[in-house]
Specification:
Blueprint: E1 4-10, E2 13-21, E3 61-66, E4 69-73, H1 75-80, H2 84-87, E5 89-95, E6 105-113, H3 118-131, E7 134-141, E8 144-153, E9 156-162, H4 182-194, H5 207-220, H6 239-250
Length: about 270
């Protein structure tokens, strides 16, 4: 998706910005093939009236207001009904970051200042950092209004779309909480503490995708597939013993001691 120009507005301040998608899919893609001859399976868009295949350029948007009766709406009409405020990201108010549930966040963008907006952009970013706040705004993306969060991200701003409350499904009914002994909770907390390390995103990779690519490379070169030997998980029936062993495994390995430097005789 190319960079999208928009405006961050709050009060009488309008900041031109460009939005850049912050994440991308890196998954290996597969085609659907016919088992017999391994040829591609294609999906055709066919008009149910005349039975002819329809090109993308000949497809329009239609709203069904009665059974089999539609009204056609063009992209130009959808854009024309937007007000200037709806085309911009209008900041409504500022909140504490903890007020937004993590489940509310959807798609993320980077926001960079546009020409002439550099100073106002930096003032907004610095104000958010020093006040410890994030901005809540709204805009219209395509044919749908979107709720947005604007937050500092290093030297720039991040803009994240949020789900509306009625878009989030309620959680399933939680199980009845069993009684927990104090020593069991203490052991669970000790395990958490033993695995407490800073989060560095650069340390994580999609390991399954790497194995999948090796599988595909092997099949392309004609190698026979050999399933890796699975290391079975140790089944520990006693909960406290499972916690104890887990804590032992989480302890950092002791670094080998450096050999002592040999003393040399003075000449």
């Amino acid at each position: 998706m190319p960079a999208q120009k928009t405006v961050l507005s709050f009060g009488l301040v309008a900041i031109p910005v460009t939005l850049h998608v912050a994440a991308q899919e890196t998954d290996v893609g597969f085609h659907q093939l016919h088992r017999d001859d391994q040829r591609r399976i294609r999906y055709k868009k066919v008009c149910e009236g005349c039975g002819k295949e329809v090109k993308q350029a000949d497809i329009v948007k239609g709203y069904e207001f009665e059974k089999d009766r539609h009204v056609v709406v063009t992209d130009e009409e959808l854009e024309a009904i937007k007000t200037e405020k709806e085309k911009a990201i209008q900041i409504l108010h500022f909140v504490e970051p903890g007020e937004i549930a993590s489940i509310s966040y959807a798609r993320a963008y980077y926001a960079l200042p546009g020409p002439g907006g550099e100073k106002a952009f930096e003032l907004l970013r610095r104000a958010l950092v020093e006040e410890g706040k994030i901005a809540i705004g709204r805009t219209v993306l395509g044919a749908k209004e979107a709720l947005m969060a604007v937050l500092p991200h290093g030297d720039i701003l991040a803009v994240q779309s949020l789900f509306f409350a009625d878009e989030i499904k309620g959680p399933p009914r939680p199980p009845v909480a069993p009684a927990v002994a104090p020593q069991e909770l203490a052991m669970a907390r000790k395990l958490v503490q033993s695995m407490d390390t800073p989060f560095d995103p650069a340390e994580y990779r999609d390991e399954y995708q790497a194995k999948l690519r090796r599988l595909l490379e092997g099949k392309i070169s004609g190698e026979d597939f050999a399933a890796p030997v699975k290391s079975g998980q140790v089944n520990v029936s006693d909960l406290m013993e499972a916690f104890r062993q887990s804590i032992e495994q989480a302890k950092p390995a002791a670094k080998p001691k450096k050999p002592a430097a040999k003393k040399t005789a003075k000449s």
